[in-house]
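Task card 7
Instruction: Convert sequence to structure tokens.
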Amino acid sequence: MRKAQEIPGHKGRTETGRNMIDLKDKNQCPVLEKIGEYVGNPVFMQFCLEVKETYNCSEKMEYSSCSMEPGWNIKFKKSGKTLCTIYPGNFILQ
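Output:
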């Protein structure tokens, strides 16, 4: 059995096995479902589905080199314009 490892960028959160993703690895583009597992909040996938259905748009994974939040993010786009961007390393709903 693998020892639980801390998820980078999430102090105190751990995950075991091969489902762990590294959002800062530019060479490995994650799929939405894997990001949903990473976030660990069932509202995340529900939110993504609602955005896609309500605005009839699609998601696109993009790697950002921005100094504020480098790593993979999810952009919901319609007609070439970004409707919203999600930074999964900081996904919090209040």
